[in-house]
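note to self — DONT lose this again. spent like an hour looking for the file last time. sequence + predicted structure for the chain T wanted, 447 res
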Amino acid sequence: MSASLSSYAAHTPTSQSNLTEWLDYMQQIHVSAIDMGLSRVLPVAEYLGVVQSAKDDAYVFTVAGTNGKGSTTAVISAMCQAAGYKTALYQSPHLSHFNERVRIDGEMVSDETLIAAFSKVEDARLQCELTLSFFEMTTLAALLIFAEADCDVWVLEVGLGGRLDVVNIIDPDMAVITNIGIDHVDWLGDNVEAIGAEKAGILRDDITLIYGAAEMPDSVQQLITSHNVTCYQAGQDFSYRVDNSEIWQYSNAAVTLQLPRPALSLINTANALSAVLASPLKVDIAAINHALTTVKLAGRFDYRELVHRHWLFDVAHNEQGVSFLLAQLVPLWQQHSDQQENKSGTIKMLFSMLGDKDIELVVQDLSAANLPISEWFIAEIDHPRAATVAQLQSPLAVYVEPSHIHVLPDLQQATHAVIDNSQAADLIVVCGSFHTIGEALLALEVE
């Protein structure tokens, strides 16, 4: 065993260590936070037996895409669970607590369950004499938990791209690609053809793909053809329409359904429903209705009333995400404003992003919207890839009066500042990153 691996082992947490100690350790044992590729992780996965377990014992949905993966996986999971299947759900990143990433039948797994899995993954890693990134370690632990719990259905959200993401060590029975936009250009490429090829890397021979957008890159179509994949595409093979504020209609070649409106995006819900209906799982209309009336996902157009203020939390951090946010925010603001006796309310932005995102484009789109945004409260996220205050201020200064931009030392102080400088008639919009929302919720002491 190499000296570096031995030194890691010497500092490995024990079964008596707490979850924070394990998470801190796993963030330190690899040279890079993002290290795409399956050559290191696959031997460890095979040593643990998770690949064979998924193949033999579970029906696997794998969901890739630029935006909407969280909502899509949440709806698939809720429908399968409501139909009586023991359902595993893996999502990332989390907002406030790591346990949010790993759920069985809707419930976060315990610290103890995670620690036991981390310990087994660490032992396997050392046996294989390999180093793994934080995401690789934690994803393997999630898969091991699902295998040991003997879950009937696994719903897996791809972390980054698809082809080289650790989730892709598991062969899906059903693939979903929500959409393809420009994001993560340093790892996936700077055009939709290159990005599409990476995301379609989750495809396998003779499976089914739900493709959730009207435009499809040629690179995706080529992989569909080469793998003999059956593809159902939004706008061609299935569609939806809104009947009223409480009912929407879903249609494909076989069925037309009148359904209750969920608290999540309808296009993502339609993609999820298409995946469930195209699978061999027995999910009846009662289970679908129950799932749609109960499914929630923190941070996705997430409206709440907290500390006598109205809040909207949304993880929008790229052009597609902001477009979706604004499409829903405009009518929400109108509804909110109409309900206020005091018509002097405005929108206050609590905003921060990661430095590797297109901050200027996001700021431009938010600023150009037909919305009464009166003030911006910004601070640096507590994250290694956080945008600096200067990176946030520079594009904002092009569109916003300097006196309307408030710079705070951190998200906790920014959250309290926006409360102190707002009134009940205002709407506080928190967006820009998962981390922005997570830190704001922690500042508000909300689980």
